[in-house]
TrEMBL record:
DNA-binding keyword on record: no
Keywords noted in UniProt: Hydrolase
Protein name: Haloacid dehalogenase type II
GO molecular function, one term: hydrolase activity, acting on acid halide bonds, in C-halide compounds
Signal peptide (from-to): none
Species, as recorded: Hymenobacter polaris
Amino acid sequence: MAVSAVRPQALVFDLNETLLDLAPLRQAVNKAFDNPGGFRQWFGLLLQHAQTATLTGNYFNFSTIADAALEMAATMLEARPPSAEQRHELLHQFAHLPAHPDVAAGLGQLQTAGFRLFTLTNSAPTMMRQQLATAGIAEYFEQALSVDAGRLYKPHPDAYHYAAKLAGVEPAQTLMVAAHGWDVAGALAAGLQAAFIARPGQPLYPLAPLPAYQAPTITDLARQLLG
């Protein structure tokens, strides 16, 4: 059952995959491992060990974990580990991803309608700024927020509460927009509203409540919120 929603006062967007297209990085990682499952293995390890950092209280920034996960993925795939130069290039590409085609138009519609827009990403601040600049979408956001400030990765509830606090609104007045089921589930558990952007291959977590909004693109979400 979907959680009913009041009009949100702040919209908080995840970056990776929600706004940014990971396809170029997926191709590059798969090529580095010579394996069509390379990206999926690596990205899963990255998310898993970000949660390990949170649960153990042994924090490393997202880029550091991403680098370590490349070596771990090589072991699990029984592949040659990427060289230091290859790892550097892959992380550089991670920081320079394009936006999905629908993103700028959707964000522009929401901004014009008076919604306050924020980011909340697991990416470290330096990477986040590079990602926003490369994608050409920094201008739409009142503030760009990284979990690095609180040293707790999403889906820890404090990460979502941090975003709501910085926006100056209550969690229930905050809408988290994400393309990952775990991120939607985390936001809902923290008392936020949530919107799921159904990027290809991304499912909702079936054991969590349904979000108030579901849309295939940011422009479709904008139509729902403005309707």
